[in-house]
Write a structure and sequence with these properties.
Number of strands of chain A: 2
Mean pLDDT of chain A: 81
Radius of gyration of chain A: 25 Å
Oligomer: homodimer
Distance between the termini of chain A: 22 Å
Strand content of chain A: 5-15%
DNA sequence: GTCAGGACACTCTGAATAGAATATCCTGAC
DNA sequence: GTCAGGATATTCTATTCAGAGTGTCCTGAC
C-alpha cells in the first residue's frame, strides 16, 4: 500500500460525504462548505481532485456515471465501496483513539522566544492575547447561533473543542505576559542580559559548550547549562517515550 | 518573492541556530536535537537541506567555507546575513502576535464523529483519554527533570504550553465520555437512531434538503435541520469572520 | 441585447515534502 | 584482524498539495 495512506484528512471528509450518498467532487466540496467543515478540514480544489483520484486508485471509491449537462465540464459521480466504508471506520476510530503528535505554530514561537528582545516579545504577546479574545468571542457567537437554530451539540463538538483550546491558550498567554512584565518568570535575567540592548548579534556559546557530557558544571554557570540540562531532559523523555 | 516564504518552521529553526553561530546543516540538526527542539519543530533531513537551499536563494543565509575532513562528504558551513536577522525577528514576532488557523487531527475526528457507531466512538474515546493521561505524565516528568537540572522555565515554555493544551483536551474528552455514556449529550438520540444497528448505509437526505433557504422548518424535523442550522451557523460565522 | 460578474466544475503547475538511499568513517566485539 | 552497526553528512525521488488558471453557464442591470 502506498505510503500516502491516511495523510490528508480531506480524504476522510470525502469518504464521509460519499458514505451519505454518491456525489461528484465539486458537490462534495459544496456539502462540506454548507456544514462549515472547512473550519476543521483544509479544503481546496487542487487537493480535492488529487485526493479523489488517490481514493479511487486505492479502491475506496468507484466512479459511476459521468454526466454532462449542457456544455459544462463533465461531472464524474463517485460512490463509496465496501472497503471504503471499512477504511472510513478504521481511520476515524484511529483518529479518535490515538492522539497524534502535532506541531502548533505557537509552540515553535515559544520554543525560540528568547531570540526576540524582551520588550518586542511582550508587545507581540499582548497582540496575541487580544486576537485570541476576539476569536473566542466570534466562536462563542457562532456556537450560540447554532444552538438557537436548533443544531444539536453533537454537531458542534469541533467548535466546543476549539473553544476549550483557545481558553487554555489565552490563560497561558495571560500568565506569561504577567510574568514577563513583572519579571517573575524564572530565567528572565538571562534573557534580559542577552537581548536587552538591541537585537545585536548573540554572543557565541563558549567553545565546546554543547559537548558537555555528564561533567558537573559550576553553580550559576552562564549558558552551557541550557544545553546540558536540555540534553538530560530529552534523554529522560526518550526513555518514557519508547512506545509512540 | 516565492510563495514559499515562511511556510516551513524548520527554516526559522535554522535561522535561529545560525544566529547563534555559523554551522553546517547537519550540525544545525544536532544542535536542535540536543535541545529537544524536534518536539516543537518537525525535523528531517530531506526537508533540512531543501530549506537551507531556499534560505540561501532568498539571501537570508550565506555559504561560507566548505570543509572536507578525511574523505567524508563535504560540509558547507552557512552563516546568517543581516536580512536573515531581520527575517528571523519579523517572522518570530508574527508567529507570536498572530494566532494562525490550525487543523488539529482531533478536531477532524470530532467533526465526523457521528459517522461512527456510538459504542465504537465511546471505546475509542476511552483509549484516547488513557493515552492522554500517559502523555501528560511523561511530559510532566520531563519538565520536572529539566527543573532539577537547573534549566530555567524560560527555556521550557513549549513544554508548559503543551501541558496546558493536553489538560484542556483531557477535560474535554472526559466530559464527552461521560455525556455519551449517560446519554446526556444533546442530540444523541439522533446519533443512535442512525448508526445503532450496524454501519449500514446512511439514509439519504430528503431531496433538496441542503438548499433550504430561510424557510422555517417544522419543529422536530428529522435530519434536514442539521444541514439548515449548520448553514445558518456558517453564515453567522462568516459575518463575524470577515477580517482574518 | 449585451455585458459584467459570479457560480460551476474542473485542470495545471511548480514548489515542498518525507522517507529512503548513499557513501564514508569510527568503535568495539569476537 | 575483521566485521557489524552506528554516527556523519548529504542526495535522491516519488508524491502531495496549494494556488492560480480555464472555460462554460446563468443572472440581472442598463
Amino acid at each position: 500500500m502506498p505510503r500516502s495512506a491516511r495523510s490528508n484528512p480531506l480524504a476522510l471528509a470525502v469518504l464521509v460525504s460519499l458514505y451519505e450518498r454518491p456525489m461528484h467532487p465539486y458537490e462534495v466540496a459544496q456539502t462540506l462548505r454548507s456544514r462549515a467543515k472547512q473550519e476543521s478540514v483544509r479544503l481546496n480544489y487542487g487537493s480535492l481532485y488529487a485526493v479523489v483520484d488517490s481514493l479511487e486508485k486505492r479502491g475506496f471509491i468507484r466512479a459511476g456515471e459521468t454526466v454532462r449537462e449542457g456544455r459544462r465540464p463533465e461531472r464524474t459521480v463517485y460512490e463509496i465501496t465496501d472497503e471504503g466504508v471499512r477504511e472510513l471506520t478504521d481511520w476515524l476510530t484511529e483518529l479518535v483513539a490515538v492522539p497524534a503528535k502535532e506541531y502548533p505554530h505557537f509552540m515553535v514561537a515559544l520554543s525560540f522566544l528568547p531570540a526576540l528582545a524582551t520588550d518586542d516579545a511582550l508587545e507581540a504577546m499582548r497582540s496575541r492575547a487580544l486576537a485570541l479574545e476576539i476569536r473566542l468571542t466570534q466562536l462563542r457567537a457562532a456556537l450560540r447561533a447554532g444552538d438557537e437554530y436548533g443544531l444539536p451539540r453533537l454537531f458542534e463538538l469541533e467548535g466546543e473543542y476549539e473553544e476549550k483550546l483557545l481558553e487554555a491558550e489565552l490563560d497561558f498567554v495571560r500568565v506569561l505576559i504577567k510574568e514577563i512584565d513583572d519579571g517573575s518568570l524564572d530565567g528572565i535575567e538571562h534573557w534580559r542580559s542577552f537581548y536587552a540592548p538591541a537585537s545585536a548579534a548573540m554572543p557565541a556559546l563558549p567553545e565546546g559548550a554543547d559537548m558537555v557530557d555528564g561533567v558537573a558544571l559550576p553553580e550559576e554557570a552562564e549558558l552551557p547549562e541550557e544545553a546540558a540540562a536540555a540534553e538530560k531532559a530529552a534523554a529522560a523523555e526518550e526513555v518514557a517515550d519508547s512506545d509512540r
